[in-house]
Amino acid sequence: MQYAERILDAIDMETFILARDEGEAKGFMGRFLADLGFTDHDIVFLEQVGPGVRVRARAYIHRPGGSYGWLAEGDDNGG
Q1: Given 2.60.120, 3.30.30, 1.10.3470, 3.40.50, which CATH number is that of 7-69?
Q2: Is the pLDDT of residue 48 over 90?
Q3: The pTM is what?
Q4: How confident is the model at residue 9 (pLDDT cuts 50, 70, 90)?
Q5: Which residues on neighbouring strands pair with residue 11, listed in sequence order?
Q6: Could you tell me which of 68, 57, 51 has the C-alpha nearest to residue 9?
Q7: Which of 5, 14, 28, 57 is the most exposed place for a label (fewest CB within 10 A)?
Q8: Where are the domains of the chain?
Q9: DSSP state letter for 71
């Protein structure tokens, strides 16, 4: 079973990025999440602090109401 199939909803990531402004940090974080293989994500918080931006992002494994791998019929490893 894939690890992502065991995650109920999303993974949150927070970091501080050296960036000129929030737009640059948002673009960087989006590219970073894409490089990690996350195709569905939201930037949920941006705050300019001195030389950079505090960024919080949510990468969705399963959106609410989506198809959950761990609910698959015949899955002996789930739940």
Answers
A1: 3.30.30
A2: yes
A3: 0.73
A4: confident
A5: 59
A6: 68
A7: 14
A8: 7-69
A9: G
